[in-house]
Amino acid sequence: MVTPGAATTKSDKGTTLMLKRLAGVVSMAMVAITLSACVSMQTYDALEAKYQQLKQQLTAELAADQVTITKLQGELKVTMKDEILFPEGGYRLNTAAKATLNKIVPALQGLQQTKVVVDGYTDNLPVGPELKAQGIADNLDLSSRRADGVVEYLASQGVNQNLLSAQGFGATNPIASNDTAEGRAKNRRIEVTLVGPGT
Questions:
Q1: What distance in Å separates the CA atoms of residue 168 and residue 166, rounded to the nearest whole number?
Q2: How many whole angstroms separate alpha carbon 57 and alpha carbon 44?
């Protein structure tokens, strides 16, 4: 027969042991949350540093409204109007384009964990006969060639080619109306997006 005092003692010991285990679990969870916050803060700081660096390098282009830089959640996007990179209706980078891209190269060269995604976009006007004669079938093809050209140039300047990717979207995802010349000009663009921790 078990005395009530003995049963209480076993119960108290069990409760104490369970509370200690619970405290250990809570402590481990707090460490995990703290580490996660540190990583997120490091990512934010690294992307913020890249943002400031790009802002400084592209001062003239930003002032001329040819480039915009946008900070997103875990991403940094540099949007360039096509007119500063390509001749009208063309897809080959000109000398001025290379000079502009050279300004962002220093921010990209040291990256080891951050992807550099280059997206090309066009307006909705069909490609002309001159481009068709060069094998460009449509806007999707044109935007792809433009994005590929930017990626090839960045890789030639020392940006880690394993982190680079290119994709053309043609006239999809417009940021302005294609009903006006001004809107179409905004839609013809290249977006260089840094995706990752900024390192």
A1: 7
A2: 20
pLDDT above 90 as % of the chain: 62
pLDDT of residue 20: 63
What pLDDT is recorded for position 37?
40
Beta strands in the chain (DSSP E): 67-72, 75-81, 115-121, 164-168, 189-195
* 157 Cβ contact partners less than 8 Å away, ≥ 6 residues apart: 101, 102, 105, 109
Residue partners of 175: CB distance under 8 A and separation at least 6: 186, 187, 189
DSSP string, 86-124: S-TT--S--HHHHHHHHHHHHHHHT-SS-EEEEEEE--S
Q: What is the CATH number of domain 46-195?
A: 3.30.1330.60
